[in-house]
Design brief:
Layout (H helix, E strand, L loop, with lengths): L1 H22 L10 H5 L3 H13 L2 H9 L4 H10 L2 H12 L9 H17 L1
Helix pairs in contact: 3-5, 3-6
């Protein structure tokens, strides 16, 4: 009787091992180009553009007048979603090159400031 139990448990173990081994996906290796790894994503570029905007002297002055420090602004920009950062970066691209901010641009700055105040 012991031999029958050993054979049946061994058969179950072999069957279980066969089933489990068939479920394991095979690993695949591919060569990855170094340039592809080093290239920044669009989200990284947008975030950098928004940070550069926030570092402008006139923007810093306006934010400080609203009671928001540069560190708080940087932290808030870092916590924005990719869609929010992309929208801000696109808006920054349409601003005048001379640095003269229009009323709409100041509204954008005020909205960022409002986001910062609400986040705190």
């Amino acid at each position: 009787m012991k031999k029958a139990g050993i054979h049946s448990s061994r058969a179950v173990a072999v069957a279980l091992a066969a089933v489990l081994s068939s479920q394991v996906p095979f690993a695949q290796a591919e060569i990855v180009d170094t340039d592809a790894l080093a290239a920044p994503t669009q989200a990284d570029l947008d975030r950098a553009k928004v940070r550069e905007f926030m570092d402008r002297a006139n923007v810093k002055e306006r934010m400080q007048a609203m009671g928001i420090t540069g560190i708080v602004a940087r932290d808030r920009v870092a916590s924005l979603s990719e869609a929010e950062v992309h929208a801000m970066a696109e808006r920054i691209e349409t601003m005048p090159a001379g640095g003269a901010l229009t009323t709409q641009d100041w509204i954008l700055v005020a909205l960022v400031a409002l986001l910062l105040v609400v986040a705190l």
